[in-house]
Each structure stands twice: as structure tokens, then as C-alpha cells.
Amino acid sequence: MTTTSSPADPHRWLEDVESDAALAWVRERSATSERTLQAHPLHDELHAGIQDALEASDRIPLVAQVGDHLYGFWTDAEHPRGVWRRTTWESYRTEHPRWEVLVDVDALAAQEDVPWVWQGARVLRPDADRALVHLSRGGSDAGTTRELDLTTGEFVPAPEGFAKPEAKGSLTWRDRDHVYLTTADDPTGATRSGYPRTARLWRRGTPMAQAEVVHTIPEEDLGLFVEHDQTRGTTVLHHALAFYRSHTLVLTEDGVRRLDLPESAETSVHGDHVAVRLRHPWDPSPEEHAGPSGAGDLAAGSLVVAPLAEVLDDVRSATWTTLVAPDDRSALVDLVWTANLLVTTTLVDVLHTVQSHRLGDHGWETRDLTTTLGIDLRTASVAAVDEHRSDDLWLVTTGFLQPMRLSLVRTGAGADVEVEVLKAAPERFDATGLTVTQAWATSADGTPVPYWQVGPADLPADGSTPTVLHGYGGFEHALTPAYDPIVGRAWLAHGHVHIVAGIRGGGEFGPRWHQAALQESRHRAYEDFVAVARDLVARGVTSVPHLGTTGRSNGGLLVGNMLTGYPEDFGAVVCQVPLLDMARYHELLAGASWMAEYGDPDDPEQWEWLRTFSPYQRFDPDRPTPPVYLATSTRDDRVHPGHARKMAALLEEHGRDVTYWENTEGGHGGASTADQWATWHALAWTFLHARLTA
């Protein structure tokens, strides 16, 4: 068998994203799907409810501080593409802050006749009078960058202003007159994965073509990314060799210096220190030493820190301190630096905990903040208010039935921690009678797999309740409790059940949980997921005709494998922006960057395992499949829309129940505006109501 889809594949022409024939095929099916689903009695109610939640004026306006202002991006009914704006602390604390609009994306899109989508902005420090504004056409990953004068509200014209043409990459401030430039449109070309391979230093007033080369990586590697600390003057280059292998480079007076750290580790440089999160065990000590604090190898999942100067000098004689050492029940999921703290977020049995770490006279001191912050059964997201000037923290908490809450956390050198609730979002759906429970299913190899169940407290155990099982299971990404007004309004408010599964391949229990389902072990993720499905049926929560499943991106690959590998276990499948043709995924857009996760189809040995979880090749015409809804975006330049198109065509060819819809913009996210998002979600949830509630 060949290791790639052959030219004889009758549906390969659908990979030509914007060909007239392919777009005509898309328009015909999308129109049919819209007519059918929009005629369902629930559709209009779902669409209106979702759009209302997305555009609600009493949503929390999340912000970030630079200098004396708080900056944030906002969308609403009047500004569907959004505005970037700022306010003061005094005003932000009021019920109705006064905002200064800096960029009106809708007005800019209308003026330039381009469907601009906001990608973010970087404000120059410390003056805060200039910003680099990032925009993309239709929501694609490739974008443009322009320099904005914050005192006049005007873009600074070339050649005085910095402007990056459309391509994957970025501009990063070094100082007022210099930026670091990375672009896939560089004369050195892009990497095989389509990301920049060269970083340049570009001086104001000079042509971009004359920007000085700082560093270039080989074409076969994944990409090169730059970060610069404008306060401390530290420049760090992240040279990604593959998805889970990288080198960290520091720009010094002697040139670019590589830190001699494990390639599989995640590295964060902050001022005088470097923090390293280990994916595999590591002993940084010379053989004649016992290791940090007398310990042996540092365990996978640990977070260790050391002085940057010592690491640059000799990593094996550096003073390493372990700040987080997880066990089989826990996993480090995030770290945040402030002026004097390193704050970590850790999962314990898929529940968030937060710790702060401060370097004192006698070494690093750790304090658990979980109880003080009132996290309980909520997901906690922590960010520095101003990592250059204070130890204050933003704290966002949310749970399946608890709307988002934003707090300001003041930490000090003493024991006192002050928590000020700044904003609290109202409930978006009626949660009366609903409850949240955690259960465990047993996978095929005996591994316990956690999942969250959200639904009626008085659920009948007769298998009659429509239930949707959601999962991801990849890239060490953990699924944790979160308030989702879309799921709430579209599903939970109707008395149905929603399930979130923490299967292997994800990050619920750290690197070992992720690595247990990599490449040739990928089947473990799918065995975990179907084990949850079968547990739900065995417990009487639901039954196969009433059980649906949803997944996006890598989650689309997951549910694609339910469609072709376990079709008897599901009553309906929603598969969005998916990978499905694993024979050609590495040839399409950013696909080559994910071979560390899945494998290389061009290697015959690896293709033997890849073919076992490639839904497009795995489809068996003699085996029934449940109804499936496939959705993607024409502007998705990360996961190629050809995956969903070809799968729909294959299923159509064999007379299966397949509904296909494609948005014309939106990138990998699927949509660009609240109205588009409402359509994106309403069609999918209408499909699930139509197939599972009869």
C-alpha cells in the first residue's frame, strides 16, 4: 500500500481550496445544509440565543495593563469585528467604563474593503505611545502588522512606520527604533511547516529588505519565534525543531547563545532566571554530584529554576531548584512571572490549584493560594497585571455552572493576599436543577479515564436522555471546567447532558498522560473515548441512539475515528475543522509540524500505525456509519479544509447521512464575527437536536 493518497483519489481535487469547481461544490452543499437545518423548529431560537450571549453588553471586558492604561479588545452588535480600546483603572472599576477607541476593525475593513480580523497588538514600553497592530484577512493565521501612533490614532506611514506584509510571522518591539521581524515571506523562505525560519533586526526608516539577519534555522525544522523583554532588555529566540523539541537561544553581547537544556523541555526566561518544565526525566548534574538537593533524576512534568547566568556558563553546575514535582494525580498546566514571583497553576484530579514561588534570602519559598483565591470546582486562569512593575495578578475563574469572574489579586512578601472581585458575569442560561459530577471509565488496557458530567440532578437512569460527549485528547491540552453559554443555551437548558472527557493524549495528568497516546500509541486515546461512551450507556445516562459526540481540530480527528472505528457506539457525530486524511496531512498547510504528535506517513513503518487512525482511509463501505455533520472554513490555513471536504464527498459517494457546511472566512477558529459564530454553533447544535432527541 502506498504511504500517501494517490492521484487516483477521486476527491483530491477538493484540496484546491479556492478553485471554481471546489467552491461551487462547497456552495451547493452549504446551501442545502442551511436550508435543511434552518427549517428545524429549534434553529432560530438557538441562533438568536447564541448570538445574544456572544454580543451581551454585560460581558466582562478583559484587559491588560501597559503603563497607566488598561487595553482590551471588544466585540458587540455594533462592532462585530471589534474595537481595540483602552481606559484607566479608575474608570475600569466603574460599572460603565469610559473607553478610548484606538482601532475600529469594522471601520477599517469597510474603508479598505478587506474582511479584517483582529490578531492582537503590542504596545511599546515604557512610553506607551506606539503599538504594533496585527490583523489577518478573514481570520487566517497569516497576517499583516502596522505601526499605530497612540497619540494621534493614525497608522504611521512607510518608510517611517513599521509594516509587515501578509504572511505568517510577527513584529516584536526591541526599542522605539528597532523591531524584530519574522516572516514566512523572508528571502530565506519558510520552513516546511510554513513558518518563519529567519529572525531579523529592522531599523526604523530603512527598507525591510535591509533588515539585519539575527538567526536562521534549517528549512526542515518547524519555525523560529522571538520574544523581547523591553524592560530588562533580554531577547530570547525559540527555535522549534519539531512540535515537542526546541532550542532556547539568548541574544548576548557575544552573539546568539543556546541554553544547553533538554530539547523536549519548555523553557521560560525571565530577567535573571530561567524556568524549565520537563517532558522527560533529566539529571543536569555531573556524575560526581548527587543532583539538586541531593535528588536523582528530575521527574517528567517537574518545573525547575536556575539563575540564567549560571545556565549560560555551564548548565550542569548551575543551581537548580525544583518548584513543582507532580505525581500521578497532578500536572503543571501554566506558569506566570511577575516582578518578584513565579506563579504556577497545577491540576490535581483535573481540578485547578495555584501556588506562588518567591526567591528569598534562603532560597525559593512556595505558598499555596488555592483556598485564599476561592477556586473550588472552578478553572483558574492567572496572568500578571504588570510583570515589570508589580506582583499583582489577574485571576479569571469559571466553572461549568459558574459564570466568569475577574479578580485582582494583590500578593506581598508577607502572608496576606488580598482578592478584589472586579467584574462578575451574569448567568447566561437557566442552571436550575443542573449538577456537575466527575466519573471515571475504564479503558481497554485498564486505565481509569476521568470525565465530567453536566446535566439534571434528577436524571433518569433509563438511557432516554440526549447526551453529547466532547473530547480532544492531543498536544498535552487539558479539558477543564468552564462556563459555556453556547452549550448551556443550546443543550443544557433543554434538560440534556453534556460530557467532557479527559482522555490520554491530553494534559490532564501531565506529560505521561500525553505521551501515552503519541504516534503508535494513538489508539489509546480512542479506546479511552469510547470507554467513556460505553460507561455512559452502562450507567443508564443515555443510550446509543441518544448519544452524540463533538470534536474540533485534533478533536475532529478523534470523532472521525469514532465515525469509522466505533460507529455502533454513537447516534450522531459533529466533526469540525478536522484532520481526517492522515496520509496527506503533512503535505497540507501546517500539517508537517504535527508529525511529532502523529507520525510521518512517508515512513512505511510509521504509516502502518497512521493508517489505523486515518478516518479517510479507514472508512469501510460495508460498515454502517451514524449521521455526521462536517464543518470547516475556507480561510483555515492551519488545518486544510480539504480534510472535511473529501470526507464528506467520500461519505456522499456511499450514500451515507452526511451534512456539510463551510464558512467562507474565520480561519481555524471557524468564524470571525458573533453572527458567524452563532451560525457556526446553531447549525451544529440543531443537527444534534434533530438526530438525538427524536
Structural description of this entry:
It is a single chain. With 694 residues, the protein is α+β, with helices and mostly antiparallel strands. Among the domains are: 17-52 and 428-692, Rossmann fold; 326-427, no CATH class. The protein is built from 15 helices and 37 strands. It has an eight-stranded mixed β-sheet with strand order 30-31-33-32-34-35-36-37, with helices on both faces. Strand 27 and strand 28 (405-411) form a beta hairpin. Helix 1 (20-38) crosses helix 15 (674-692) and helix 2 runs antiparallel to helix 15. The longest helix is centred in the N-terminal third of the chain and has 19 residues, at 20-38.
Which of globular, elongated, flat, extended, rod-shaped describes the shape?
globular
Q: The biggest beta sheet, please? A: 8 strands, mixed
CATH class of the domain at 17-52 and 428-692: Alpha Beta
Strand content: 25-35%
CATH-derived topology of the domain at 17-52 and 428-692: Rossmann fold
Number of extended strands: 37
**What structural category do the secondary elements indicate?**
alpha+beta
Radius of gyration: 25 Å
- What is the spatial order of strands in the main beta sheet? 30-31-33-32-34-35-36-37
